[in-house]
Amino acid sequence: MNYGSTKLRDEKVFKDPVHRYIHVRDLVIWDLIGTKEFQRLRRIRQLGTTYLVFHGAEHSRFNHSLGVYEIVRRIVDDIFQGRAHWNNDERLVTLCAALLHDLGHGPFSHAFENVFQLDHEQYTRQILLGDTEVNAVLQKVAPDFPNKVAQVIAKEYPDPRVISLISSQIDADRMDYLQRDAYYTGVSYGHFDMERILRVMRPRQDKVVIKQSGIHAVEDYIMSRYQMYVQVYFHPVSRSAEVILCNILQRAKHLYRQGYTFKQAPTPFIAFFLEQITLAEYIALDESILFTYFQLWQQEDDVILRDLSSRFVNRKLFHYVDFNPEERQADYERLQALFKQLGLDPTYYFVHDTTADLPYDFYRPGEENAREPIYVELKDGSLAELSEKSALVQAVTGREQRDHKVYFPKELLYESNNKISELILSILGVKTHRSK
Amino acid sequence: MNYGSTKLRDEKVFKDPVHRYIHVRDLVIWDLIGTKEFQRLRRIRQLGTTYLVFHGAEHSRFNHSLGVYEIVRRIVDDIFQGRAHWNNDERLVTLCAALLHDLGHGPFSHAFENVFQLDHEQYTRQILLGDTEVNAVLQKVAPDFPNKVAQVIAKEYPDPRVISLISSQIDADRMDYLQRDAYYTGVSYGHFDMERILRVMRPRQDKVVIKQSGIHAVEDYIMSRYQMYVQVYFHPVSRSAEVILCNILQRAKHLYRQGYTFKQAPTPFIAFFLEQITLAEYIALDESILFTYFQLWQQEDDVILRDLSSRFVNRKLFHYVDFNPEERQADYERLQALFKQLGLDPTYYFVHDTTADLPYDFYRPGEENAREPIYVELKDGSLAELSEKSALVQAVTGREQRDHKVYFPKELLYESNNKISELILSILGVKTHRSK
Amino acid sequence: MNYGSTKLRDEKVFKDPVHRYIHVRDLVIWDLIGTKEFQRLRRIRQLGTTYLVFHGAEHSRFNHSLGVYEIVRRIVDDIFQGRAHWNNDERLVTLCAALLHDLGHGPFSHAFENVFQLDHEQYTRQILLGDTEVNAVLQKVAPDFPNKVAQVIAKEYPDPRVISLISSQIDADRMDYLQRDAYYTGVSYGHFDMERILRVMRPRQDKVVIKQSGIHAVEDYIMSRYQMYVQVYFHPVSRSAEVILCNILQRAKHLYRQGYTFKQAPTPFIAFFLEQITLAEYIALDESILFTYFQLWQQEDDVILRDLSSRFVNRKLFHYVDFNPEERQADYERLQALFKQLGLDPTYYFVHDTTADLPYDFYRPGEENAREPIYVELKDGSLAELSEKSALVQAVTGREQRDHKVYFPKELLYESNNKISELILSILGVKTHRSK
Amino acid sequence: MNYGSTKLRDEKVFKDPVHRYIHVRDLVIWDLIGTKEFQRLRRIRQLGTTYLVFHGAEHSRFNHSLGVYEIVRRIVDDIFQGRAHWNNDERLVTLCAALLHDLGHGPFSHAFENVFQLDHEQYTRQILLGDTEVNAVLQKVAPDFPNKVAQVIAKEYPDPRVISLISSQIDADRMDYLQRDAYYTGVSYGHFDMERILRVMRPRQDKVVIKQSGIHAVEDYIMSRYQMYVQVYFHPVSRSAEVILCNILQRAKHLYRQGYTFKQAPTPFIAFFLEQITLAEYIALDESILFTYFQLWQQEDDVILRDLSSRFVNRKLFHYVDFNPEERQADYERLQALFKQLGLDPTYYFVHDTTADLPYDFYRPGEENAREPIYVELKDGSLAELSEKSALVQAVTGREQRDHKVYFPKELLYESNNKISELILSILGVKTHRSK
After folding, report:
1. Tell me, what's the pLDDT at B189?
2. Which residues does the UniProt record annotate as the domain HD (chains A, B, C, D) (predicted)?
3. What pLDDT digit, counting tens, does each position of C286-340 carry?
C-alpha cells in the first residue's frame, strides 16, 4: 500500500472540548501533526489579544487546526463519500489543506502582518513548498502533492468544492472558530447546529450547496457569526491591546533603523525590521519570543518602547472613544498637535483604528468585493442564493458596520492635569472627573 | 469610607466559561487584579505540560485564580453572611487570599520546584509581603493586612475556617480546578453539583461543615477528583514531557556550574542555577522565557541540552513502560549500564518517575500524613467524619495508588538497532518490532 | 408575623434542568404549589401537540410555571431590591402572578379555546377569584390580594412594571419558555444569555428598561424567539395534529348537538358542547381525560369521529401542502367539491390553516396591534426604542411571516386511487407516485 | 430487494436532546415506530411517579426506546460492522429488539406489575408474537423474525452478544436511561463518556468486551448508575407516591371482588381485577386512563379509595420514616394495632416498603443471583473481570444497600391529635410538634 493511503493500525483520538473527539486514521495526517511546523502552532494564540478581555480565550491555533481538520473529515467521510459528483480522490488533499490552512500564521497575526507587511497565507504556502518537515511528509504522498495542497490554500485548486470546504462563506474554518472561540471565551453566542449543517451539505459538480431543509441552521450560523464579530472579535479593549502591540513593533523597527543600540540585541526581529525574511526566520518566531522581548524592553532606555512594552505586559491599556477622523478632520489635527504639546508622540499615543481594517467579511453577494454566495438547493433541485430565501440573512446582507475609535493613555493626561489635557478630553467628549 | 470597604461604582464582571460570570464589587479586588504580579499569572499555565496530551488545556493560572475568588465570594456573600458563628470581618481577607493563593507559582511549577528546590507557597508569601504592587494595594487596607493574607496562605491564620475555604479537602481551589481543568481538557469527569455543595456548607465555630443532605454531591466531587487525577493529572504522556523538562533544566544548571559557555547567556536562569534568587528575579521568570530559551538551546553545542530542548519544543517525547526500580533493583542497575554502553547518559535518558511525587493528597483522615477530614453535620446537629457516612468514600479512603514508570527515548534505541538495544527492550518487556 | 411575609424555616429547592434550582422561601408560594389547581398543571403539556414532532417535548405547564416564578424571583430579589423606583411591597404580588399566570390553561390549550370559544386568561382570573384552594391561600395574605393578582393577569394592575415582568415583549414567561422548550425539544435555538439580561434590567418609575450594555443579549433573545417560532412552534406536523384534534372536538360537539348516542356518554365534555361551563367543570378537564375519550371514540359508530380519534392516538396525521385559499379561491372551492365527491367531508378532511391564527406576536412597535416596545437605557440615561439601536432587530421588526397550508389525508386519496384523487393532487401540486 | 434490507430514500432523523439526533435508515424500523403499539409508549412515563419529586421527569418510554435503538445502531453500524467475529446478519434483529424492548410496559409499570402479578417482559413477547401491528411488520421480514426478536427479549437468542447489547450490566438500555433520566430530572449525576465506551466495545466470539483503555469510562458509568439509584430512582417521595398508587389499585380490586358498586364502572380494569387479561385489554391500558379513573374515584363512596385517589392526583403524599419491621417486629405489630384504633386500616395507611423490591441490580459477579460480569480485554488479549482491574468498582461490588421505610399519613394523625397519635409518633421517633 502506498503512503498516502496507509491507515494507522489503531485509530488515534484527541479529546477535544468542542467536537468531543478528533479522529485520525491516516498515517499522513498523524505524521503532519508531529512535524515541528505544526507543533509551532501551539505557541500562537488563536485570538491574539482577546484573552486580555475574555480571560478564557487562551487557546492556540493548534487547537483550532485540529478542529477544522475534524469537521472536513466528517464532511468528506460521513456526508460526501459515495455521493454522485464526489470523487473520493480529493479526500486526502482536502484533509491536509484543512489541517494545515493556518500554518503560516505568525505571532499575534494581524498586528504582525500590519507592521511588517506580511501575508500569512503566502507563508503557509512557503511552508508547504519549502524545506520543512511538513513538505517532507507531503512529498512522500507524491512529488506534486505539496503543490496541490498549496493550490487549495491559494484558492487555485481545480476543484472549487475542495477550496470552498476550507475557505468560503460557510466553511470548516469558520464553523470551527465560531464554536471554539465561543467555548473558550464562555460567551453564549457561537452556538449553532453544526451537525445539521453538515448533514445537509451536498456536493454538486462545481460547488457545495445546502439543502433547503437546513436553511434555518445556516441562518443561525450567520447570526452567531455576526454576534461573535460584534461582541468578541471587535471588542475595543482587545483592539486597544492590539494598537499598543503594533506600536511596540513599529517603535522597535523605527529605533533599529535609526541605529539605536538595544541593551539586548533584538536578534529574532532583525530580519523583520530589515524586511528581508527567510522562511526559517519566519518560522522561528512565536509568541513566547515576543513576550520575552516585551519584558526585556521594559528596561530599555527609549521611553516610548519602555512604556508601551510595560503597558502590554502588565495590561495597562489605552482608553478609547468613538471618533471618526474622516468626519472631524480639523479636530483630529488639532488633537494631534495638542498631544505633541503634552510631549506625547501622537504616532504612538493617539491612534485611530477602525474595525474594517480587520477581516470583517460579512455576507455581501454581488458587490465589488463580492464573495461567492451560499447556495441553497431547493426541493426541485434548483439553486437559490441564500438571502433570497431567508429574511433574516437578507436583513444583514451587505450591511457593513464600520466603527471608528481613537485610543490614547487617558491616565497620562490626568497626570499632566493641565489645561491642554482638559481641552483634549473636552474635544473628545470625555468627562473630566476621575472615576472608578 | 476607608479603602478596604470601598465598592466600585459599577460592579465589574468577567465572562468566565466555568462560572459564567465572575463578579467584582470591591475596589481592593479590582486593584489586585490590575497588579503586574497578578497579570503575570497569565503567562503560567494551570496544568503545565498537560496541554501536550489534552490540547485544550492551555489555560493559565490567572484564569483559575479568578475562579477560586468567585467561589469563595459566593460562599461568603451568599451562604455564610448573616449566619451564626460567621463574622463578616473575615470577608476581605478571605477574598484576597482566594484570589492570590497561586501568586508564587513559577513556570511549569512542579518541574521547576523539583529542580531548583523551591516552594511556591513560600514565594506567594514573599510577594504578599515584599516590595510589590500587590503588597502596596494590600497595605492600603491596613498595615498588617498583607501579613493576614500571608497567614492564610501559610495556614497560620487564627480563624481555621478562612484557611479551610482556600485549602482543605473540599476547598474552593479544588472545586475550581476540577471543573476548570475538565472544561478545558474536554473530559467528561470533573462535573459535580458545586451549587449544591456551596448551599450545604455551614460555618461552625471552628470549622466549615457539610450538611448531611449534601453528602451525595460531596461523594460525586470526590469521585470526580479521583478520576481527574488518574485520567488527566497523572497522564504518562504529560509526565514524559515533565521528565524531559526537568532534565533540560538540570542539564543547563549542570553545564553552567561546570563552566560551559552558552551561545546565548542564560541570564534569567543564572540566579536559579546558583540558588541565590531575589524576589524580582523569581517574578521575572515566566513560561515565555522558558520557551524562548528552549528554542535557543536547540542550537547549543552540548548534545544533550540540544536534544532535550528540541524534544520538548517539538513534542518528541520519551516512551514509557511500567517498571518499579525498588522491586527490580538488579535489572534497574543493569539497564543503567546498558544505556551508558549505548552512549546515552541514564541521568537524562532513562528516568524513573512515580506519581506519588506529585501532590496526590487523597482522603486519609487519621494517618501520619493526616489531613483534616471533611465533617458532615447530621440532622441532630452532631458531626461525623465523611467516610463513616459514605460507603463510596470509605472505599477510596486511604488507598494510595502509586505508579512507577521509566521513561526513555525508544526511537533512539531503534536507530542504534544493535544487540544492546534489543536486550534493553527485552528486559523492559517492550516488543521490539517497530509499529505505528 | 403575618402570613404574607412568613418564611419557610428551611428554604425548599426544586431541581430544575433549565434554571438548575428553583428556590422557595415564602410560605405563600409553597402553599400555592401544593394546591390542586396548581398540581393540575402537571396534566397539561406545555407545548400541546409538539411532542408528536419533537418527542422530547413532553413537559408540562407545571414545569414552566415554576420556571417563570424563579426568573421573576431572581429579578425582584437579586436585581430590583434596594434600587431607586422599586417598592418591595410589590414583591409578593409579582411572585404570585408569575407562578399562577398559566393556571387557566385547558388541555391542548389553543385547540380547545378555538373550538369552544374560551379564553384561558379569563379562566386564570376565575380560578384566582373563585371557590378554589388557590383563592383560599391568597385570601390568607389579605382579602383583596386575590384581586391584585388577577389584576396583573388582566394587565390592569396599577404598577405597569409588575405587569411587564409577567407579560411584555421581554418577560419572564417568554424567557422561561424559550429556554425550556429548547431544552426539552433538544433544538440548538433558544439559547441566550438570560443571566446577562436579568442583570441589565432596571426599574424606572413606569417601566422596566434594559441598560444599553445588554443590547446584544437582547438581540440574541429575539433571534432565539424568531427561530423557535419558525422551527418549533409552527412546525407543520404539529399543526397537522392540532387540525385533527380540533376536528375531533368539533365532530363530537356536532354529534352531541345532533342527538347522536355515544357508546360511552361524553360526560366531562357535555358542559363544553353546550357552552355552559362551570369553573369546577373547567378545572376537572385535563389531557388524561381527552386521551381516554379519544381511545374510547375509536370504537364509536360515527366513521369520522372514529377515524379522526384513531389518527390522533396512533399518530396517523394529515399530509400538508402550501396553499392559500385567498389567492386561489376557485381552486379551493373546486377542491372542496372534489373531496365531497370522494366521500370525504372537507370540513374534517380538507382543512386550511394559517400560522397567524396562533399567537405570533412579533416585535412591531407602533402598529395597529402595537405592543409596548422594549426600551433601552442609554449611557446618558435617556431611553431609546430597541430597534433604533439594533440593526438586527430592526430587520425583523414588523415582518409578519404568514404561512398558509391545507391539510388532508393523502393516503386515503391513494386508496381511492381514481381520477378524482389524481385531479386533487394535481391541483395541489403534489406528485402522484407513492414514495417513502 | 427484500423488505428487511430496504432503506428509506431519505434518512429520517428525530431531534433528541440526549443523543442529538436519532437516525433511521431502515424501512422496518420506520414502520415499527409508526405502529400503534409503539406509539402507545408515548402514554407511559419512563420514570413512573418520579415526576412528583423531580418535576422535569415527565418523559415517556417512547423517548427512551428511540434512544436505546440509536445507541445499538451506533454500536452495530459504527463499531462492530466489519470486525472479526461479528456477523452483520445479526444487525436487524438487534436493532428491532433494542427499539421494542420496553413494548410490554404497562402504566406505572412497577406498581402495576406488583398489584396484578404481571411481568412486562412477557407482555413484550406477547406483543411481538400476537395479533398486533408490530407483529405484522416483523412478519414481513421473515416468518420466524418476530420469534427471533422475542428470543432476544427472553434472553434465549443463540448469539449472546445480541442479548448483551440490550440487557447486561453495560447495555444500551442502561446507557440510555442513565443519561436521559439525568437530563430530564436535571441532576448532575448520570454523565459519563458514552462515546468512549462505545468506541472500546469489541465483539468476541461469545461476548462483548471492553478494551482496557476504556476502563475509566466504565468506572464513571458505574458510579453514575450508583448515584442515580440512590438519588433519583429510590427517592422516598417518589416511593411514597408509588405506595399510594399500589394501594389505590389494591383497594379498587378488593372492592370489585367484594361486589362493591362503582359510580362509574371500572371497565378497563375489570380484566385485571379478575386476573384474566387478553392482550388487547393489556395494550388498551395507559396512564391517561389511570389518571382519568383516579379523578373519577375521588367521587366514590368508599372512603379509602376516595382519599387515596385524591392524594395521588393532588400530590398529598404519605410521610415516611426509617423503620425495619424485621428488626422491630413487636413495635411493628403494636403500630399496626394503634393505626387500627385510630380507624386507619394499616393495609392502606401504614405501609412498609424496601428499595430491594425494586430492580436494584448492582454489580455482583459470582453470587447466587449472579450476573454476567463485565469483561475487560487486556492489552495482551486476555480477559479480566472488571472489578479485578478497578479499585473503585471493587469497592461497590456486591454491596447491597437495602433500605426500609414505613409510609403513613402524618397529617391525619395530627388531626386526630390524641394520645394514640402521640404514641405512634413516639414509637416511630418522629418529633410531634407541627412544623413547616
Report:
1. 82
2. 61-178
3. 999 999 999 999 999 999 999 999 999 999 999 999 999 999 999 999 999 999 9
Q: Can you tell me the distance from the alpha carbon of D159 to that of D207, in angstroms, rounded to the nearest whole number?
A: 9
Residue A432 pLDDT: 62
ipTM: 0.93
Which grid coordinates belong to A297? 524592553
Please give the model's pTM, rounded to 2 decimal places: 0.93
Buried b (16+ CB within 10 A) or exposed e, D117-126: ebebbebbbb
Yes or no, beta carbons of D13 and A195 under 8 Å apart: no
Query: Which residues of A are less than 8 Å from C394 in CB distance?
Result: 395
- pLDDT recorded at residue B357: 35
Walk me through the domains of chain D, giving residue ranges and CATH numbers. 3-233 (1.10.3210.10), 241-356+403-428 (1.20.1250.30)
pLDDT (0 to 100) of residue A367: 46
* Per-residue pLDDT at D373: 80
The average pLDDT across D101-108 equals 95
Task: Give the pLDDT confidence score for residue C431 in this predicted structure.
Answer: 74
CB B389 within 8 A of CB B367: no
In this complex, the residue of B39, B56, B286 whose CB is nearest that of residue A59 is B56
Search chain B and give the residue with CA nearest C78.
B78
Best mutation target, B14, B21, B198, to test chain C (most C CBs within 10 A)? B21
Listed as ranges, residues in chain C with pLDDT below 50 are 357-370, 434-436
What is residue D227's predicted lDDT score, i.e. its pLDDT?
87
CA A156 to chain B, closest CA, distance in angstroms equals 31
> Are D195 and A13 inside 8 Å of each other by CB?
no
Give the chain B residue nearest D192 (alpha carbons).
B188
**Three-class SS of chain C:** CCHHHCEEEEEEEEEECCCEEEEEEEHHHHHHHCCHHHHHHHHCECCHHHHHCCCCCCCEHHHHHHHHHHHHHHHHHHHHCCCCCCCHHHHHHHHHHHHHCCCCCCCCHHHHHHHHCCCHHHHHHHHHHCCCHHHHHHHHHCCCHHHHHHHHHCCCCCCHHHHHHHCCCCCHHHHHHHHHHHHHHCCCCCCCCHHHHHHHEEECCCCEEEEHHHHHHHHHHHHHHHHHHHHHHCCHHHHHHHHHHHHHHHHHHHHHHCCCCCCCCCHHHHHHHCCCCCHHHHHHCCHHHHHHHHHHHCCCCCHHHHHHHHHHHHCCCCEEEECCCCCCHHHHHHHHHHHHHCCCCHHHHCEEEEHHHCCCCCCCCCCCCCCCCCEEECCCCCEEEHHHHCHHHHHHCCCCCCCEEEEECHHHHHHHCCHHHHHHHHHHCCCCCCCC
| Contacting residues of D for B219, CB less than 8 Å apart | 227
Q: Is the pLDDT of residue D356 over 90?
A: no
* Chains in touch with A (≥3 Cβ pairs < 8 A): B, C, D
> Would the CB atoms of A313 and B39 count as touching at under 8 Å?
yes
> Quick one: which of A173, A204, A5 has its CA closest to A89?
A5
* Chain B residues near any Cβ of chain A (below 8 Å): 8-9, 14-18, 20, 27, 30, 34, 36, 39, 42-43, 51, 54-56, 58-60, 62-63, 66, 183-187, 284, 286-292, 295, 313-316, 435-436
Shortest Cα distance, chain A CAs vs residue C191, angstroms: 7
Q: What is the mean pLDDT of residues A352-369?
A: 51
Residue A356: what pLDDT? 59
Calculate how close chain B gets to C23, using CA atoms only, in Å: 11
pLDDT (tens digit, 9 = 90+) per residue, D161-202? 999 999 888 899 999 999 999 999 999 887 899 999 999 999
DSSP 8-state symbol, D45: B
